[in-house]
Specification:
With about 150 residues, the chain is α/β, with parallel strands linked by helices. It contains four helices and five strands. A three-stranded parallel β-sheet has the order 2-1-3, with helices on one face. Strand 1, helix 2 and strand 2 form a beta-alpha-beta unit. Helix 1 crosses helix 2 and helix 3 runs parallel beside helix 4. The longest helix is centred in the first third of the chain and has 17 residues. The radius of gyration is 14 Å and the shape is globular.
């Protein structure tokens, strides 16, 4: 999923008030709609953005699951490899929050077929979750639109 809404200031690394509200809604929406996650990942903090972390922080607090922010935004391929090859994630719900520009590349790194996900990701879209599942080693994807 993409982080929640940002402010209009390109120098501001934080969520806007609207983005903060979305993050709060996600803390209950994700467990109700998708189930309680076992793992949470957000793109690492940088001087340009803390938005992925701020988006998942309320969910992390609500379900008492730590937020892994050890992968930089450009390390989406390393995260995809980690998720695919570490057995501990198999069969468990893992939520990943990233920057829109690298979500299509992450989907590709997870092995999803071209045209099965938005590419490029529309800059105005903040309410879309890509639900990726694996059955017999084959990935599939479903778009989930947040109702808020």
């Amino acid at each position: 999923m993409r982080h929640a809404e940002k402010t209009g200031d390109p120098e501001d690394p934080h969520l806007s008030p609207t983005g903060q509200q979305r993050a709060q809604h996600l803390a209950t929406y994700i467990p109700q709609r998708l189930g309680a996650p076992t793992y949470l990942f957000a793109a690492a903090r940088s001087k340009h953005s803390n938005r992925p972390i701020e988006t998942l922080a309320p969910l992390s607090a609500a379900i008492n699951i730590p937020l892994d922010e050890s992968f930089a935004d450009q390390d989406y391929g390393a995260l995809a490899d980690h998720l695919l090859n570490e057995g501990r994630y198999q069969g468990l719900l893992t939520v990943v929050c990233w920057h829109h520009g690298n979500i299509p590349s992450m989907m590709d790194a997870l092995g999803l077929p071209d045209s099965s996900y938005p590419d490029p990701w529309d800059r105005a879209i903040f309410n879309l979750i890509l639900e990726v599942t694996f059955a017999n080693g084959q990935p599939s994807i479903q778009e989930v639109t947040e109702p808020f």
